[in-house]
Design a protein that fits this description.
Order of helices and strands: HHHEHHHEHHHH
Organism: Lysobacter firmicutimachus
Pfam family, one: Glyco_hydro_19
Strand order of the largest sheet: 1-2
Keywords: Hydrolase
Protein name: Glycoside hydrolase family 19 protein
Number of domains: 2
GO molecular function: chitinase activity
Largest sheet: 2 strands, antiparallel
Radius of gyration: 17 Å
Distance between the termini: 10 Å
Helix content: 40-55%
Number of helices: 10
């Protein structure tokens, strides 16, 4: 398990990413608390790199707020993109009028589509089909994002494919866990900064 020095972590974040508002401080503390409680992570270098990549993904996918958000747009846009009549909507399992808007992207990694809401809800034991806004609750959003990236819920690719003992981390290709190679280099650069930050802020075992 990981344990971080709070002040060192926040100071390190400021040096690498810029000033911190209070809402961002609270968002970071929430995520660090969840990571510290996550028993599936040991304090190994590989797990530190995996967490760094997850945090970089969260930072990018939430427009740098590190809080669960709604995908940008309105219901009309979501229906145009994901409606049951569209190719993408059908691939996402949207079958009813309004599904495109109802199951638009939410969370730390933008859970999208009826099929994904149903699957994540069943795996976590929550009713995301009936209450899709719950995907933005921080505890649920964290579980969706972390479990999804560990287990390959989103694209079939998972953290263990790109971060392995004895091998250099493949931060660029890891983008395939979420979204092809879109912004792969940008997110990889953020992940490297997070890895430096975590290494400097870890408390002695």
């Amino acid at each position: 398990m990981f344990a971080f020095d709070d002040e060192q972590f926040l100071d390190g974040y400021r040096r690498r990413f810029g000033p911190l508002r209070e809402d961002l401080v609270q968002a970071l503390r929430f995520l660090m608390g969840r990571i510290e409680q996550d028993r599936s992570f040991t304090d190994s270098a590989v797990h530190r790199q995996q967490i760094a990549y997850c945090m970089a993904t969260f930072k990018w996918e939430t427009a740098h707020t590190l809080r669960p958000i709604d995908e940008f747009g309105d219901d009309a846009r979501f229906e145009r993109l994901y409606g049951a009549h569209t190719r993408i909507g059908k691939a996402l399992g949207n079958t009813k009028p309004g599904d495109g808007a109802r199951y638009h992207g939410r969370g730390y990694v933008q859970l999208t589509g009826r099929t994904n809401y149903e699957r994540a809800g069943k795996l976590l034991g929550v009713d995301l089909l009936g209450k899709p806004d719950d995907a933005k609750k921080p505890e649920i959003a964290y579980a969706i994002a972390m479990e999804g990236m560990k287990k390959g819920w989103f694209t079939g690719k998972k953290l263990d494919h790109y971060f392995k003992p004895g091998q250099a981390p493949n931060y660029e290709e890891a983008r395939r866990i979420i979204n092809g190679m879109d912004k792969a280099q940008t997110i990889a650069d953020i992940a490297r900064r997070f890895d430096e930050l975590f290494a400097s802020a870890l408390e002695p075992a």
